[in-house]
Amino acid sequence: MASLTLIEERSHAAAQGLPKSEGLANIWDALVFNVAGVRVVSAMDEVSEMLPHQERVTRVPGARPWMLGLANVRGSLLPIIDLQVYLGGKAVVPSKATRILVLRLRGLVAGLLVPSVQGMRHFSLSDRLPNARMKGALGAYVYEAFNFDDEVWPVFSMSALAADPGFRSAAA
Length: 172
Fold this sequence. Notes:
- By secondary structure, the chain is of the alpha+beta class.
- The protein has 4 helices and 11 strands; from the N terminus they run αβββββαββββββαα.
- The protein has a single domain (28-162), classed as CATH 2.40.50.180.
- The chain has a 5-stranded mixed sheet with strand order 3-6-7-5-4. The protein has a 3-stranded antiparallel sheet with strand order 2-1-8, with no helix packed on it.
């Protein structure tokens, strides 16, 4: 019994504590992806999940060209939208890197087809560039950016996309 107590004492003495949460309030978590040839980031809390490209998407008659159709995802129908076509660009060419970003915002549930996702990135809020704008259709959803390692990372607002009446109306 004494040896178990000794082992426990040694374990506690050698154990590392959990990381300190100081400074985490000043960090913004983002998902990095490409759309229309531009690397952008979106808030992690705006994307509910990420799926691989769905082979079986059922086309919806009378829908706009950017509305690819409906996919059965775990028993629920998910509208799949080609984000590049919606923004006026060329259709996403499916590959192993192609992903669907699932949004559940403002009562809207939709999957955005994007060419690739590079992963997560953490930015310090002190590196935020408020009121950053871009030209073109992509610029309608970029209101800020981050400056990190002398690179500008535009923030694509999924909330603004979900609120856009043109996006919410897929009927042609």
